[in-house]
Amino acid sequence: MTTTIEPAEDEASVSSLISVRGLGVSYDVARTGKKLVAIEGVDLDVREGEFVTVLGPSGCGKTTFMNVIAGLVKPSAGQVLVAGEPVTGPGPDRAVVFQDYALLPWRTVFDNVKFGLEMQKGLKGDGWRDRVQEAIELVGLSGFEHSYPRELSGGMQQRVGLARAIVAEPRILLMDEPLGAVDALTREVMRAEIEKLIAATGKTVLFITHSIEEAILLGDRIVVFKSHPGAIKEVIETGLARPRSERSIQSDPRFLELRDHLWDALQGEATAAAVSK
Amino acid sequence: MTVTSATGTNRIVRPRRVVRSGEGKWAWLLVGVVAAVLLVWEAAVSWLQLVPAAFLPPPTEIIAAFVRLLGEPEFWQAFVYSMQNLLIGLALAIVVGVVVGLAVGWSPVLRFTVAPFLWLLYSTPKVALAPLFILILGLGNESKIALVFLLAVFPIILNTMEGAVTVSPSLVSAGRVFGVNGVYLGWKVIFPATLPYSLSGIQRGAALGFTGEVLGEFLGGTGGLGHLLEFAAYQFMMAEAIALVIVMVIIANLTLWLISTLRRRLAPWYDDRKIVGAS
Ligand SMILES: Nc1ncnc2c1ncn2[C@@H]1O[C@H](COP(=O)(O)OP(=O)(O)OP(=O)(O)O)[C@@H](O)[C@H]1O
Ligand SMILES: [Mg+2]
Question: Which of UniProt's keywords are assigned here (chain A) (predicted)?
Answer without folding.
Answer: ATP-binding, Nucleotide-binding, Transport
